[in-house]
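Because discrete structure vocabularies remain unfamiliar, we turn briefly to a single example record, giving the amino acid sequence and backbone structure tokens:
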Amino acid sequence: MNATALLDSARTSAWIGALCLLAGVAAPTGAATVDLYPTPPDLTSTVAPNLMLTFDDSGSMGRNFMGDQRPYSGAGWGATDQQDTSSSAAYPSGGGPYLCAGVIDPRVTDPANPRSWAMNGAYYNATAGVDYQPPLLADGVTKMPNATFTAAWDNGIIRNRPSNPGSSTTRNLGSDTRFCGNAAGYYRLKTGVALTLDTDGRIDAASRTRLFTANNWEWVNIASSGTAAEKQNFANWYSYYHTRHLAAKTALSRAFAPFDDNIRVAWQNINSNQIGTNTAIYKFRDNATNNNVRTRFYNWLFDSPVSGGTPNQAATVRAGEFFRRSTGARDTNPYWDRDLNRELSCRQNFHINMSDGFWNGGTSTTTTNDRTPATRTLPDGRTYSTSETQSSIFWHENGPDARSMADIAFHYWATDLRPDFANNERTRLKVPPYIPDKSTSLFGTPLATGEDPRDNKEIYWNPANDPASWPHLVQYMIGFGISGTIPNNANTYERLRRGLLAWPETVAGTDDGRKVDDIWHAAINSRGEFFAASNPNELVSALGAIISNIIARRGSSTALSATMAILTSGTQGFSAGYDTTDWSGTLTKSDLDPTTGEPETPPLWDAGCVLTGGNCVSTGQANLPVTNPADRNIYTWNGSAGVAFRWANLSAAQRTALNKHPNPSITTPDNHGSQRVDYLRGVRTGETASPFFRRRSSVLGAIVNSQPVYVSGPTGGWEDSFPPGSPEAAAADPATGAGSYAEFIANYRDRAPTVYAGANDGMLHAFNAVNGAERFAYVPNVLFETGKLNQTTDKPNVVTVDDMPVVQDVFINGQWRSVLVGSLRLGGRGIFALDVTEPDSFSAANVLWEFSNHSPGGEVLGYTYGSANIARLNNGKWVVLVSSGYYPSLNTDPYGFPDPARLDANANRTSLLVLDLETGALIREIRTSGATTTYALSTPAGYDLNGDQVDDIAVAGDLAGNLWRFDLSSPDPEAWSVDLMFRTYGSGNPNDPGRQPISVMPVAMRDFATSRPIWIFGTGKYLGKDDRSNEGTPSNEGPQAFYGIRDYGTGASQYPIGADQLVAQTLTQDGDVRSITTNAVPASNRGWKIPLTIATERSERNVIGITPLYSSNRAVLTTLIPKGDDPCDPGRRGSVMVVDAATGGVPGNGYGGMPSLSGAQSNEIGVVVNSVAIPISGYPSLVSRLGAAGIVMPGIPEVQIPDAPNYRGAWRELLDLL
């Protein structure tokens, strides 16, 4: 279950000197955006989960109070205890003031204070920030109209539904005295009335007496003294929320709005519209293929009746049986996928059961009730036993086994719903386990190093986890306005897990709180959740939490973890990675085997464990101290300066952003901003108590694409030979060396060694390379603007700081410094710069600047995929070269939230932005031109033409297949220009742009025939869901290729070069060994190409950086081969090849000696690697063997390259030979 991919931080290693690596991308045209996705394509199970919704259409859903008894007392609602379920029912005075009080006191917002608790949860809640928005229609955007205060509908849904609208009586809420004898308004408990709690956390008896004393309440008159906004809010509440069924329909309309192709939906009512043989399930999108399912769902929802009892057991059984279907290639088969024309055994099944009352009637069958065996073998071979304490919460009940909802739920979880899948290895046990909580503190048996978490019984039987790998059903139960006999809190939950508390016996034929306990038990038994929603706002939140959990499970994959590595030049290395079950992160330091370069186990430390404390699975250490969140040095940019990341230091705009609800469709602020800051700093209390943020196994977030960068002493490779008159030369005293780069090296030779890595917890982290302790962290301001920080507290897989940082020694503000520049990939449209010269004393003053799409001149900036690097130009400036970024073709957010970048008017520009490194200000935007189609500029490489340590040109490809050459040689930025060097389309290749996209950085190497640089790169991309397949899109169908393109200078007549002007080398494969031809590449040709046309390796592509071996003029080429189009079997393979950079053929006896691979002879140049050691982005790991003239690739023992190690002076050898 573990996948390991070792990568190298090559972007900051041997060839950075004058050969600057300028990673970047550029904005596509509106018609040529890019498929992007937050989860690595090889780990993303693109299988949309099944969701069945059971909606209560019983008569009690028409009531205007919630629940059936008054809260906290168990007594009825007095004069309102009647069966009038029409929308026109009034609130008679006989019900007491409690009937017209949504919450006890809306002035109190602290959830721990009982005055903030619900009273009649269906009534108007006047708490500040509660915003009653109308229902959303099927498009998920359009709202029903606001109600009118003087003419509010009794039932706004029936009046405004698009299909079959009806009539509704209107009320003047300013004069109609239907609200407990008053016009519009509400009751609240007087300030001086005290409420206290008992030891179980309930309102105590004396307080209940005070609570239900009518004289202790006061009326607030909205009709006479309310503001216009309050009157509008009250009118919307009355027309769309004032009964249970209105509130539920409105909440569902808003909760289902973000769904699209990311989920498949079917539905039923408890009484009417039950599941039948023709019930089908479709992706939640309106088109003919999906039978216009969105419109049909919303029409059904808005038209659901109010009549009958509550036969929830029978409805739950119908849902369970639906997911046992095997009806072939039909939409009635929940496992059949129309797009792939096959059944998908990894499809996950979920059921939302929303009900307002105690179940009755329609009890389950004997089969679904059978939980009596003392032991049973589960489909994965593990044992369920009623004698094991770890599983007590599932089986420990008072009294004899009864026919209960809990039994039904356990049956459909523990049963393989499609046992026929188990007969085929391709489909057996493919459902991805979901294990977000690996804690073992209750029973004390820690998870052993390397142990499958599912083999630890405490983890396996933790209800927060769902370890089932077979087709099963997870149930989410919403009790709308009802509560049970045992308090649903953390203390009760722990006692149930320990076996210290038994579930109450469920008695058929009775309607009491024990049936609510049974619903909670059912949710636990199916590894779902129970929500007791006491008001419409809690219902919206409950649905949001359910949807987030479903999407989180969908995002997990069959591989539980993956890693990547950057290796030091010594005997130790750093490996970063993530665990997809909860998207927690790891960064470990290990000794390296001196022969193979393989990391030795166990690691010396794990920064995630050092930060989090407790037991560390990766290292085997126990009881590590917890890093005090208050002591962490975390900073951000407030729009004008660096500040500490603490609530008191944030700007007003940042506070407003953090107070927003994480779901953009909920416009009412949740005001949890300060708690979010605490959570992000590492405070854990909010994970198990209000506001119940996402639970984490580690404070460190997933490190996915941000390859770690190791920095100790200065390694820029510069010499004190900058041009006369330059700032660098003027600052250096030739007599004493003061102000020189040599002095800088001497002063910082013993600088505190630090590892930098971005993580999807919203931070760029700087870790002590000796012990793994965090030195400091940085939170980009752009994450406030996008809402990503809010979502990290709510959802597990939110991309934030996901790109590899770039660190370079630069001369700014009159002195040499080390500067880190970071970009975010899909985390945001921004770039930031930090002064990391002294990482052990980093402060807010070392935050230099941020540049985003909101900065002057930044409107063109899209998502920053490796979009920034540092260069020195002829205008005397050190600059950051920034590509204008990717723009998404589809909704990039995994939770379906809108992405404004999709509609950005600037997406039709492809540009290279040049920023002043000192200030972050834009110097020049250089737009590409001369191509019919251009979009998504990829990683540029800077190049110094004359060896003066000043970059003169930059070269980059784009995803249309163009190769661009930017002339930056003039000191006047207005004179900078761009040429189209080469096109991968046409001229003998397929004519359609985008079939051979360039997503990697070109590398300049020696061309002996012309004494000019030759630019080497490959084609292909691996960015989105579509890219994990080997068919379906032009770039997947290929074939892709490697190219070597000769540089003829600025404005050369040879441009644009075509593919038919290149010499082709032919690649062949025998088993796993690859060979190539050695055709000559004379000066009359424009370069060379290697088509990737091995028939058995369909859709092979280059998405990993080229590794140059300058001393021998060889290029290490790495390819990726998607495993196939089966989303239930994700993974990848690839190849590693070494070729002559000048010809693309077999390296010869020229400069550097005869190359070979391990065991290679004659024309053999590489091997196919059948493992996930092949990286998906960045650069491959290359490690020089100590004491030997050779290079190895950790994780790929087949590859051993007898070559000189890379070093910083290598680029000078290149210049000397050109």
In short: The radius of gyration is 32 Å. The longest strand covers residues 815-823. Residues 50-58+246-555 form one domain. The chain has three domains: 7-44+560-712+751-1216, 50-58+246-555, 72-240.
